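2024-03-11 09:14:02 DEBUG pipeline.ingest accepted 1 chain
2024-03-11 09:14:02 DEBUG pipeline.ingest length=119
2024-03-11 09:14:03 DEBUG pipeline.predict start
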Amino acid sequence: MKNLLFALLFLVVACNSNRQEPMVGGPCSYETTYHPAKVIDFNTSLMDALFEVNFHGKADTLGYHELNNAYLTPEQVVETGFSVGKTFQLAMDDIKTGTCTPVILRLELVPFDSTAIAK
């Protein structure tokens, strides 16, 4: 009886050792689309801003720090002419292959280019 239990245990372990877990992580590939992100509020003491973005017909509000994990610098504000009412590019990376983060959003401090929507 002990031999039978040992044989069954060995068989279960041996069968499970060939099982491959799905790879987590890269390499991954993404498709990037661009969306207009309009500055609706700018907090000069925190150097953070709120942007209004429209995804699939629904307006949403996102913060610069929230998206980029950094605050604006005075140099960026001057170089881009950053102000309430300006519209910049929000890049949305949608995963196509791999098992990395499925959607990555980042705000690019360049004026929104409506021809970039299809890219």
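2024-03-11 09:14:41 DEBUG pipeline.report The chain has one domain: 24-116.
2024-03-11 09:14:41 DEBUG pipeline.predict end
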